[in-house]
Specification:
Length: 74
């Protein structure tokens, strides 16, 4: 079985994009719950920090993760 690098990289990029959009929607819908969940995952108290999410940051993060996943997967 041969691994097609371009197809695999594209699949990684699409998966990263879908996960990023899902997480962004969850943060917008339930910011305090997502902050608490994130703090529990990294074993830190993040409640005092708060989220600072705007459209430019969300799009820049989406682009960065898509490129990173696409190039590392392919």
């Amino acid at each position: 079985m041969k691994l097609h690098e371009v197809k695999f990289g594209t699949a990684c990029a699409i998966t990263a994009a879908l996960l990023w959009v899902l997480c962004t929607i969850l943060v917008l819908a339930m910011p305090s719950l997502m902050l608490s969940l994130t703090g529990a995952m990294v074993h830190m108290q993040l409640q005092d920090m708060g989220w600072h999410l705007n459209l430019a940051g969300a799009l820049l993060g989406l682009l960065a993760w898509v490129l990173a996943a696409g190039f590392s997967g392919g």
